[in-house]
Amino acid sequence: MEFRYSKITVKIGSNVLTKPDGTLNVSRIAHLVDQIAFLHKNGVEVILVSSGAVAAGRAVLKPSHKTDAVSKRQLWAALGQVKLIGRYSDFFGEHGLTCAQVLTTKENFSSRGHYLNMKNCMTTLLENRVIPIVNENDTISVTELMFTDNDELSGLIASMVNSEALIILSNVDGVFTAHPENENAELIQKVGINDGEPENAISGNHSEFGRGGMRTKFRIAKKLAKAGIGVYLANGLKENILTKILSSDEISAHTFFEPSDKSSSGIKKWIAYSDGFTKGSVVVNKGAAAALKSEKAVSLLPVGIVTIKNEFKKGDLIRIVEESGDIIGLGKAQYSFDKVEAEKQSVKQKALVHYDYLYIETTTNH
Ligand SMILES: Nc1ncnc2c1ncn2[C@@H]1O[C@H](COP(=O)(O)OP(=O)(O)O)[C@@H](O)[C@H]1O
Ligand SMILES: N[C@@H](CCC(=O)OP(=O)(O)O)C(=O)O
User: What residues bind ATP, as annotated (predicted)?
Assistant: First the structure.
């Protein structure tokens, strides 16, 4: 059987893995494992990002009344992850396959060293034909340094392992022109890299145990597609949805975010997802903003810097913003903020951010 891709990341949301009463939907998990096992045996490398720990944990234990919300989430995640990974392990075992648990936190992506350690672990698992199952470590991630949800984590993982595509499974067929409950809502089948979010289409709600919502999915899918990785939003409750999307001669309902034909380097992908870890920021003038947003490969020279908004050291990730306050991009500083003025006077100015360590959020397409 011909498959569209040979390496994919699959993210399964809470509302696919759980029943309305919050307990794990074991038969659904089994069906998804059957599909992944079939793909794996036919040469498709699959990395799984699975929600469901918190949901599964709620069914295990009713916390004492004095347990606060954050502690409840930690308790349920710790209880539920065992249940969740145990089910996956048993079901993959029935196919003679081995899966492994990888728990991570957003902070692990802020340190290049941690990032590379995680990447090494993922590479080793895949080289040994083990199916990685990744989830956020909710026992630790309880504050603003949480991922918005596993949609964001799945984008980071897909970039990290250089997946050809990311498939995000939720309880709807994709992005609709209005909330799916609206009878006039229509499925958006394709989103180009220059398409914005459909006006007034996405409402902010998300599943009871989830965190993201469709807006997060849309934003992450666009960012990933820009980095050269195609993204499918599809319904994990539909039979054989994964094998249908992967099979070039099958039809399936989904929203596909077309990837850019220019894939970003590994370091640029890491920088792109590091917005939450920037230390400093600079304001650039109109000329520098236009140059940076053009399709040309340019570095940020000190001459284009109007203001140092937040101080930074050499090696820090910094935000680059226009005088309007709009973000242009992120980059790694080649020297600290207090050297910018001196560099401006130099005959041969050294770029504050070299192009190879620069990620531009918004480009002006000519
Ligand atoms: N325009 C839209 N198209 C599709 N879904 C939408 C839209 N606007 C809001 N939604 C809601 O987003 C939900 C999916 O997000 P979420 O609950 O976070 O899923 P998951 O738990 O799988 O991450 C859908 O169930 C739907 O109720
Ligand atoms: N780590 C959490 C993930 C929560 C989450 O992102 O949920 P969802 O938005 O449904 O994918 C859990 O396992 O419950």
Answer: 11
Distance CA 212, CA 148 (A): 6
Percent of the chain with pLDDT over 70: 95
Distance (angstroms) between ligand 2 centre and the Cα of 210 equals 5
In angstroms, rounded to a whole number, what is the distance separating the alpha carbons of residues 193 and 199?
Answer: 16
Q: Are residues 240 and 356 both part of a single domain?
A: no
Summarize pLDDT for 326-342 with one digit per residue, the tens: 999 999 999 999 999 99
Q: What is the average pLDDT across 241-259?
A: 93
CA of 213 to the centre of ligand 1 (A): 5
Q: Is residue 129 part of a domain?
A: yes
Say how many Å lie between the CA of residue 8 and the centre of ligand 1.
22
Distances (CA, A) of 216 to 93, 219, 312: 33, 5, 29
The domain in which residue 124 lies consists of 7-267
Predicted pLDDT at 206? 59
Q: Indicate whether residue 207 lines ligand 2 (CB < 6 A).
A: yes
- Domain shared by 58 and 196, yes or no: yes
Whether 255 and 314 share a structural domain: no
Ligand nearest to the CA of 174: 1
Name the pLDDT band for 362 (thresholds 50, 70, 90): low
Name the residue with the closest Cα to ligand 2, atom 7. Answer: 210
Nearest ligand 2 atom to alpha carbon 137: 1
* Ligand 2 lined by 213 (C-beta under 6 Å): no
Query: Which among 242, 267, 292 is the end of a domain?
Result: 267
pLDDT(192) > 60: yes
CATH number at residue 227: 3.40.1160.10
